[in-house]
TrEMBL record:
Residue runs in coiled coils: 55-82
Protein name in UniProt: IS3 family transposase
Lineage: Bacteria, Bacillati, Bacillota, Clostridia, Lachnospirales
Keywords per UniProt: Coiled coil
Presence of keyword Repeat: no
Family annotation (PANTHER family): PROTEIN DISTAL ANTENNA
InterPro entries, A to Z: Homeodomain-like_sf, RD_transcriptional_regulator, Transposase_8
One GO-annotated biological process of the protein: DNA transposition
GO molecular function: DNA binding; transposase activity
Amino acid sequence: MSTKQHYDEDFKRTLVELYHNGKTQASLIKEYGVSQTALSRWVKQYSTVETDDGEVLTAKQVKELQKRMAQLEEENQILKKAIAIFTPHSSND
């Protein structure tokens, strides 16, 4: 029977910050007793990207923005098709 440990957001972010400040994953795993899989996932999830205008986004936020952008692009294509269907075409064209 495995017992899955649950860690709060602050703990995860703190470990990711320590990693980015020079601690190795191996030392963090040993010191805090977390799994390699969990730590790697947190590093991917909580690492940040800074945009040109100085806004800082987490990888999770970037993924959410990509998902939203894909959704909006799909809606845009549907609207373009609807416009083409419902726009009357002149026989003089």
